[in-house]
Specification:
Layout (H helix, E strand, L loop, with lengths): L1 E5 L9 H15 L3 E7 L14 E4 L1 E3 L7 E3 L5 H6 L6 E4 L4 H12 L4 E4 L15 H16 L4 E4 L2 H9 L6 E3 L6 H5 L5 H6 L7 E6 L8 H11 L4 E6 L5 H10 L6 E5 L6 H7 L2 E4 L8 H8 L4 E4 L2 H7 L4 E3 L3 H9 L7 H11 L4 H16 L12
Parallel strand pairs: 1-2, 1-6, 2-3, 6-7, 7-8, 8-9, 10-11, 10-13, 11-12, 13-14, 14-15
Antiparallel strand pairs: 4-5
Helix pairs in contact: 1-15, 8-13, 11-14
Length: 387
């Protein structure tokens, strides 16, 4: 098969959407299929920052907000339309913005099935738009419903997101396909005293880790407040990742009087993450807005103790292998104080077993089954409903 990916964001930006796209592309290529990615041009991005997938760049403009994302201009050269798009077997949209509507237009024009992966709960991002929040959230729901009902199938990573789409009126076929991670690579992570030493963690201290893009919707401020409320000098917090809220979060840590106990690591190379997860005494995930939260699966694969906000999608990802707490500062503070200081082999085994569900091979197999059903001219193909 020849599959065309259309995405609003791609490397050098690093986030869950990009990681999910790369994992699926890797799995498809290993099965002998070809993937072609249409993405906005990113000024200053070197070719080796764009990955191994053939990239067909479209012109883009900066957005009027503090974000690395770009406004894509829907312009594809005639040569790329004739030599690539017209020859695709199927179109897979990873956005419902400009590139998503481009994908839909090409799919309908050239008679190809179109799949859309619902990566992001747009309603949770209303604070980025300079309009009244309730009106923005309503508009986001309307856009999601409209676009979802125009494609042949919508892919969601968790059952909770399938229920959410049904609740807002998406009637199209919905398939649950968890986003994949390199389970073996993260399972290779080992507790490393050198890692802990670099983070200035003493032998009598416990290391709590958070990995994410630093943005308001990730609830990092709640984590900082809970860490301050825990008021435990034996705890140290490492925050890995970067984003538009980093300066505010560093300032908040100072206000709370915990800046000396919190390490902001910035962007961490992917190859360093397995040992970082495995070297922590607990991984914390306060977000309730992620559709899956790839970092939870990564932490599980590394055998980490995961403490996550009690939200339906987090509950489904952890599958009983982590600790769920109310998304309040008091509840997280109690959970932080209760973090044990010694590794638990039995817990690590349960976590790694739970992570097996998120392998790239499993994601690829499920997606290929979906693609095949849409390309099959039989009645059970296009138009089939599930979830």
């Amino acid at each position: 098969m020849r599959i065309g990916f259309f995405t609003e964001v791609y490397r050098p930006v690093v986030n869950g959407v990009v990681e999910s796209i790369d994992a699926l592309a890797e799995g498809l290529r290993e099965r002998g299929h070809s993937v072609y990615c249409f993405a906005p041009r990113m000024p200053g991005a070197a070719s080796n920052e764009r990955g191994d997938v053939p990239i067909y760049e479209m012109p883009s403009l900066p957005l009027p907000t503090n974000t690395p994302y770009r406004l894509t201009l829907p312009l594809v050269s005639r040569r790329n339309v004739n030599n690539v798009i017209k020859r695709l077997s199927l179109v897979h949209a990873h956005s419902m913005f400009v590139t998503g509507w481009m994908a839909l237009r090409y799919a309908r024009r050239y008679g190809m099935p179109i799949v859309y992966t619902y990566h992001t709960q747009l309603e949770a991002y209303a604070h980025y738009v300079p309009f009244e929040p309730n009106a923005t959230r309503f508009a986001a729901s309307q856009l999601t419903r409209t676009f979802g009902n125009l494609v042949d199938a919508v892919v969601v990573p968790t059952p909770a997101m399938a229920r959410h789409l049904r609740d807002i009126g998406v009637e199209a076929r919905i398939e649950i396909v968890p986003s994949g991670i390199d389970v073996e690579r993260f399972a290779s992570g080992r507790r490393d005293e050198r890692v802990r030493s670099r983070l200035r963690v003493r032998d009598d201290q416990r290391l709590v880790l958070f990995v994410s893009r630093l943005a308001r919707e990730k609830n990092v401020d709640l984590l900082l407040e809970a860490f301050a409320d825990a008021n435990d000098p034996s705890l140290r917090l490492a925050i890995a990742g970067d984003g538009p809220a980093r300066d505010e979060l560093e300032a908040r840590a100072i206000e709370l009087g915990v800046r000396e106990s919190v390490v902001f690591l910035g962007a961490v190379p992917r190859e360093a993450l397995p040992d970082l997860y495995a070297s922590a005494d607990a991984f914390v995930f306060p977000s309730t807005t992620d559709t899956q939260g790839l970092v939870q699966a990564e932490a599980l694969a590394a055998g980490a103790r995961v403490i996550a906000a009690d939200a339906p999608q987090n509950r489904e990802v952890l599958g009983g292998a982590g600790v769920l707490v109310e998304p309040t500062r008091a509840a997280f503070a109690r959970a932080l104080r209760d973090v044990p200081g010694k590794p638990d082999a039995a817990l690590a085994g349960r976590a790694k077993a739970a992570a097996a569900r998120f392998s790239i091979s499993s994601q690829t197999e499920r997606m290929l089954d979906l693609y095949a059903s849409l390309l099959d001219p039989q009645p059970q193909g296009r138009g089939q409903r599930s979830a």
